[in-house]
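Appendix B. Raw example, untouched.
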Amino acid sequence: TDYQCRDCYNIERQLVKLYETRDDISISIKHFPFNADCNPGAAKTLHPNACWAARAAEAAGKLWGPEGFWKMHVWLFERRGEFQNLEELETAIREFGYDPAGFGDTMGSPQILEVIKADALEGKQLGLYFTPMIFINGVELKGWMAPNALIRTVEQVAATNPPPRSAAYDQPPMAFEKYVADWRDGKQINLPSDKQAWTLGTPDAPVEIVLWGDYQEHYTSRADTVIRQFVAQHNNVRYTYRHYPFNSDCNPNLKDRRFPNACLAAKAAEAAGSLGGNEGYWKMHTWLFEHRQDLTEESLSAAAAELGFGAAMLLAAMEQSEVQENIQDDIDAAKKLPVLRYGTPPGLHSIPTIFVNGRHIPRWELGDQPVLETILKEAAQ
């Protein structure tokens, strides 16, 4: 949890009710402040006081045990993790019935920081990518955003009369298994139709991979490489690439031109398809990713003959209305996608966005571990 996280606060209210009304539960709080000052796993600082709030809770626990921790924990959430100075904390501690002497030194100690870092590291190992992350008897509560989900789930689990056990019996999956399971357990959706689909692999294969991306984007390139290699090794897989250039020149959903030649690349791929059919499209597709860092109109013209197109013919085809219509069709389809990540509006908001058999892959990469390959293999079995 994170004391400055809005969704964590909403869960906290349910947690307090459970704590106050049930005598058959134990609660463990782990920290994942979205603040790089104390959490090496936080890419950037979203919550400026989250580290000090976590320090305050841990210091109260170290000095006054579980009761002290819980009092500080509740106090912090009531204030969304905000406090201005040590004196404000000391006033609260006196109201709890404790002597605040030494609290500031304890809160600022390296030992307290290490506790928070250890919690955050454990969260990363479990595949945490936003808070709250909740486990009940070792099983992740993925639907925590539904109304009263925590209370209802605890009641359902309690009704099964599980044996009393400590947290040592909890064996939740680590990040790799979680990422694969997040795809496996995801809702299957009907993807928006594709006006002009260029398909790699067997056209009517039972395993369908669809990726929205940008030819100049690094992660799109990496995912595409994995997918094309997989398709080449399996005859029951088909792959469709759909355009979502991150450039406002051809994508009206965006306000900037993050990749200056993204529109040029998308037009080149569609033009190659119009001239050379499916084979022509995929030749150009592969070349565009291989040259994503040095792509210019000049380099494209020079490569046209090598790829089987005349330079003038390719450039002329790129200006055809059908080419832009096909690109716009993919962009419009991306906007029609449902909510893919809690807290975001419907539609595509990041690339690459990948679906396998109609199920979205929320996380397809984890260091050098083959998350995407594992999902593809499972789908192809």
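End of appendix B.
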